[in-house]
């Protein structure tokens, strides 16, 4: 079977096919349009794996870490893209695939997609919630600024602060506002103010520019540092129509750096005018009150009580003494009347008392049931008590009873 033919291994075959694909200039630097499916992000390795498809075909694709780390957005299933890369063969599996060096969304810009993706992510974490927003101080003593020291934005901010609120100290932390090192410098500056409480309020921003120029303020690290800052942060990035992630994370968004300076500073002239008005009002109120109390004092002094205080006291003393005498007489009369009534009652009780009768030589017979009022209750041999004026003696009936008019036999 093998006579006259060269026999090769699978590895040799795959190597040959790969060599042919890699050497074909038509298969290098291809711009391929397709829809992402089966997307997998290997976070540990940093590689991105996916398939690209259209209505009739599909091809596997991979984007290695050194290329993927430069993407401005995160690919997703269903996203239509234009990928730039090359076709080659993965020798181990014998599978040809598309190796992506760069990709862009098909239609919508990569930066726009990256912006919306990060905005949705941070919003889902509650980073933009109104409940997290800190109020700005009414009268800041120290105003911090994080921006470029050479930009026009700083010049505008300083001029407005000097005009509106010259009483405040201004602290500048100069940083780069674009470029690869800018996010790290801005985060470091914000953390400095937050940790050291070096200002009462903080302005973070820059002047206008393209979306690429402003992209530093769409950095996730910058947004998180702004949200975590312990002092109020006002974002001031670009022009009024420019929106960045930093604007949503800040406690307050200013449409421009100049507007930020006005938002953090009260108007010194207006405050002086207000103080002057309040002083005038206070003087007027105090003067009115003094006049009112002066009139009341004059009225009090002209009162007879203050002119002849002893006379007024004597009037009340005499009235008190008269009232006291009337009350004393009334009480004595009542007591005398009650005393007379009491004496009359005592006399009546004494007249009716059995003891009075006994004192006149009479006696009272009684037994355990009470007073004996009839001779019929004195049976022969009955014991009873006889009470005299000076005591009681026990007696025994002998069977004979004397009536008032003669002697009679005791009934049996």
TrEMBL record:
Record bears the keyword Nucleus: no
Alphabetic keyword roster: Cytoplasm, Exonuclease, Hydrolase, Nuclease
Species this protein is from: [Clostridium] cellulosi
Pfam families linked to this entry: Exonuc_VII_L, tRNA_anti_2
GO molecular function, one term: nucleic acid binding
Protein name per UniProt: Exodeoxyribonuclease 7 large subunit
Entry similarity comment: Belongs to the XseA family.
Subunit and interaction comment: Heterooligomer composed of large and small subunits.
Signal peptide (residue range): none
Subcellular location: Cytoplasm
């Amino acid at each position: 079977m093998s006579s006259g033919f060269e026999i090769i291994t699978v590895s040799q075959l795959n190597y040959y096919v790969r060599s042919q694909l890699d050497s074909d200039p038509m298969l290098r630097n291809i711009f391929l349009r397709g829809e992402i499916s089966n997307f997998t992000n290997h976070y540990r390795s940093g590689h991105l794996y996916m398939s690209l498809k259209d209505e009739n075909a599909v091809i596997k694709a991979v984007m290695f870490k050194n290329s993927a780390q430069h993407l401005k957005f995160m690919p997703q299933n269903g996203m239509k893209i234009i990928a730039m890369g090359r076709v080659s063969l993965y020798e181990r599996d014998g599978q040809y695939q598309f190796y992506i060096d760069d990709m862009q969304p098909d239609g919508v810009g990569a930066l726009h997609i990256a912006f919306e993706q990060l905005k949705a992510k941070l919003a889902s974490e509650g980073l933009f919630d109104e409940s997290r927003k800190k109020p700005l101080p009414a009268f800041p003593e120290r105003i911090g600024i994080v921006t470029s020291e050479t930009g026009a934005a700083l010049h505008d901010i300083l001029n407005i602060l000097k005009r509106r609120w010259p009483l405040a100290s201004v602290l500048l932390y100069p940083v780069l506002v674009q470029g690869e090192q800018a996010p790290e410098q801005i985060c470091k500056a914000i953390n400095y103010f937050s940790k050291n409480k070096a200002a009462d309020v903080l302005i973070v921003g820059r002047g206008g520019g393209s979306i690429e120029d402003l992209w530093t303020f769409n950095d996730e690290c910058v947004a998180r540092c702004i949200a975590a800052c312990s002092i109020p942060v006002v974002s001031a990035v670009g022009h009024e129509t420019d929106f960045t992630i930093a604007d949503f994370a800040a406690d307050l968004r200013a449409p421009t750096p100049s507007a930020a300076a006005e938002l953090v500073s009260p108007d010194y002239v207006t405050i002086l005018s207000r103080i002057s008005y309040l002083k005038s009002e206070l003087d007027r109120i105090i003067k009115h009150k003094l006049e009112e109390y002066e009139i009341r004092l004059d009225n009090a002094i002209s009162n007879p009580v203050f002119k002849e205080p002893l006379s007024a006291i004597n009037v009340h003393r005499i009235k008190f003494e008269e009232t006291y005498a009337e009350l004393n007489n009334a009480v004595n009369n009542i007591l005398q009347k009650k005393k007379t009534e009491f004496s009359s009652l005592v006399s009546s009780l004494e007249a009716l008392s059995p003891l009075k009768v006994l004192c006149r030589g009479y006696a009272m017979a009684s037994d355990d049931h009470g007073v004996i009022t009839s001779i019929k209750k004195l049976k022969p041999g009955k014991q009873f008590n006889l009470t005299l004026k000076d005591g009681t003696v026990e007696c025994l009936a002998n069977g004979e009873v004397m009536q008032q008019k003669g002697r009679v036999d005791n009934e049996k």
